[in-house]
């Protein structure tokens, strides 16, 4: 949940696609995540269509599944019931109904459950990212997926939010995921050379004369929301 909290806090307020989360939940979690992130976080409800600009959280003791019509079904057991392989069933249902349009981010979980689901995602053309050992408090789920070759990339905690923004935002060069990763590596190198932990890379859109933050390190959500897109003649250090 702590990794999920950090991820949601890095997303823009009107993130355009649905985010469906399988996580062990308590009764107040949806409200807390909504207040912290500014996103529309709600409990997944059986029979409801999955819509953009919303975050669907698995209710306590339930596992969300995607069914025909891209609607939600709820299995009568939660992600803690690992003998019933909830991660596999969840990922397989996403792969079936979203195919190559799906992105799965594995933040943690239980030993072995999730490998078959990650394979199904890959076979359907989807993308699977996993949180690396250094920043994942529960590496048990990610390690078997990596060993099985069922993931596309292993990311640090700060990179996960950037990856999600990159995959599902307007498709131009500023939002190219691979460009973001390469610029992130460049920014990390510059920060090490200068001995600081805070910085951004901005790209100028010559058609509009606006500066766009492409990658960043060390800034919290309010700062990013304020300076994500600014005019080049804005009276700030970023401009």
Set down the secondary structure blueprint.
Blueprint: H1 2-9, E1 19-21, H2 29-37, E2 41-43, E3 55-57, E4 63-67, E5 71-75, H3 86-98, E6 103-106, H4 115-123, E7 127-131, H5 142-147, E8 153-155, H6 157-167, H7 177-194, E9 199-205, E10 210-217, H8 221-227, E11 229-231
Parallel strand pairs: 1-3, 2-3, 6-7, 7-8
Antiparallel strand pairs: 4-5, 9-10, 10-11
Helix pairs in contact: 1-6, 3-4, 6-7
What keywords describe this structure?
239 residues, alpha/beta, three-stranded parallel β-sheet, 8 helices, 11 strands, 21% strand
With helices defined by DSSP (H or I, 4 residues minimum), what is the helix count? 8
Order of helices and strands: HEHEEEEHEHEHEHHEEHE
Helical coverage, percent range: 25-40%
Rg computed from alpha carbons, rounded to a whole number of angstroms? 18 Å
Query: What percentage of the residues does DSSP assign to strands (E)?
Result: 15-25%
**CA distance, first residue to last residue:** 36 Å
Secondary-structure class: alpha/beta
Sum up the overall morphology in one term.
globular
Largest sheet: 3 strands, parallel
Arrangement of strands in the largest sheet: 1-3-2
Low-confidence region ranges: none
Residue-averaged pLDDT: 86
Number of strands: 11
């Amino acid at each position: 949940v702590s990794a999920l909290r950090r991820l949601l806090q890095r997303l823009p307020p009107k993130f355009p696609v649905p985010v469906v989360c399988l996580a062990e939940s308590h009764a107040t979690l949806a409200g807390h995540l909504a207040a912290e992130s500014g996103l529309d976080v709600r409990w997944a409800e059986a029979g409801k269509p999955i819509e953009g600009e919303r975050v669907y959280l698995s209710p306590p003791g339930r596992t969300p599944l995607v069914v025909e019509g891209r609607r939600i079904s709820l299995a009568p057991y939660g992600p803690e019931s690992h003998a019933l392989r909830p991660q596999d069933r969840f990922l397989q249902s996403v792969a079936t109904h979203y195919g190559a349009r799906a992105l799965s981010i594995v933040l943690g979980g239980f030993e072995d459950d999730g490998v078959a689901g990650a394979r199904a995602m890959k076979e359907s053309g989807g993308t699977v990212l996993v949180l690396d050992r250094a920043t994942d408090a529960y590496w048990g789920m990610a390690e078997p997926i990596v060993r099985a070759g069922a993931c596309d990339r292993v990311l640090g905690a700060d990179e996960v939010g950037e990856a999600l923004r990159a995959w599902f935002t307007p498709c131009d060069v500023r939002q190219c995921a691979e460009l973001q990763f390469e610029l992130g590596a460049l920014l990390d190198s510059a920060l090490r050379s200068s001995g600081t932990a805070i910085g951004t890379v901005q790209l100028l859109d010559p058609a509009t004369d606006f500066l766009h933050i492409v990658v960043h390190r060390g800034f919290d959500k309010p700062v990013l929301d304020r300076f994500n897109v600014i005019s080049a003649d804005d009276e700030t250090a970023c401009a």
